[in-house]
Amino acid sequence: MASFLIPMIAVFVIALGGRDQLLVARLSDRLGQSAALLGVGAVVSAISAAAMAVSGAWLAAMMPDRAQHMLVAFALAAAAIELFWPAAPADPKEPTRSLFAIGLVLLVRQFGDAARFAIFALAAASVLAPMAGLGGAIGGAAALALGWSMGSELETRLPLRTLRVVFAIVLAIAAIMIGLSARQLI
Question: What is the rounded CA–CA span in Å between residue 172 and residue 70?
Answer without folding.
Answer: 13
